[in-house]
Fold:
Amino acid sequence: MELKTIYRKKMNIPYVVSLTDFWLICHKAQMTLDTGALCSGPEQGKHCQKMCGGLEKEYYHKRFQQACKVLNESSANIVSSDFLHNMMLHAIKGFKSVNVAYGLNFSYLGVNNNHYKSDSKINFLFSGTLSKHKGIDTTIKAFKSVNNKKFTLNIYGDGPLRSHVEDEIKSEENIHFWGSYSKEDTKKLIKENDVVLIPSAWYENNPIILQEMIAANIPPIVSNIGSLPEMVKDKKTGFIFEMSNVNDLKSVIEDIINNPIQLNEIKLNMYNDYKIITIEQQVLAYIDIYSKAKREAAE
Structure:
């Protein structure tokens, strides 16, 4: 990483860094400690060495210095959320970035036009990696504790907790595990579900599944972590609960089940408030950033 950066600078070759996670300030990329708790930042590598050991002592600080060099000497750093920018700025003084949202391919997406009455049965969707940091354990515990069984929870995905998930729901008539799905099935999922869950227990950075469901006009339930609260306004364009808090998530679920009519207003708010860009628009934004970098290098 360091040699390539020096070479580019010597040859006057501009470069742009597109950040999608925390890899440059976290060798695990997820900003989680070995204990599973969330990390507040590398502290120039000192915190990494203390809380996530196992590597050579010199590695952590050297890696942090190289990351600073790469980001400070780039022509531009692209992020897709204010949260990611703020996390990087907290770790690296003077960090600058340009915020460009992810664009979507709308060809495989549909729009959910369901309208709800007081007695409507609600279908909830979880789609993602079956792992603790994605919140599947919190999700299952919350739904199993719900008293009003006028719902269905559809779980799609795969991961290290697959066997645990299958074992936990084997006697639950309202919870179904369907395994993985392809993009061709996305329209079917959108049509058949009413609310999507993104109950992450780590610092999410603008997850694509959230943007897809927003574009499809499906109200989201998200945890209050990472960029998720940045994208969802509680009880206006979705629902927010305290991360990993089973009782809080249960309360949100029961509120929706007992009063499904509220989803109609939330879907209308989503339609009016959100503007999801296309992949083509994202590409145009990137071209503009790269073109500016090229012009400045030539001056």
Remarks:
- The chain has a mean pLDDT of 92.
